[in-house]
Amino acid sequence: MADINEYGGGQSPNADVLVVTTNDIPGFRVDHVIGEVFGLTVRSRHIGSQIGAGLKSLIGGELRGLTKTLVESRNEAMQRLVEQTKARGGNAVLMMRFDVTEAADAGTEVCAYGTAAVISPIG
């Protein structure tokens, strides 16, 4: 079985900035909305993985090399999103989303975006 971090991602439980896909966070209040933040990365495709993907597509199955590249890209975009949030004084990102597009046949663009905010525990 593959390492969970090899084909997935997400935050560690003790992250400095809490990133959620929801509007609110149970047990916390939003003290201040900072505004939109994003993290962006564009990755070119490795020629070896492209050839392997082309051959694999003939017989079917997961394109593991491309999957790993996309995981790395998403994690890098998330890291940049968190850095932007911290630089602007936030400790949370609400409504985080990913957007993935092809970048002029040169690679894949991955953008993580959301609303930076300052939150504090209720009570």
Automatic annotation (TrEMBL):
Pfam families noted in UniProt: YbjQ_1
InterPro entries in UniProt: UPF0145_dom_sf (IPR035439), UPF0145_YbjQ-like (IPR002765)
Organism this protein belongs to: Kitasatospora aureofaciens
Protein name, per record: UPF0145 protein GCM10010502_27010
Family that this chain belongs to: Belongs to the UPF0145 family.
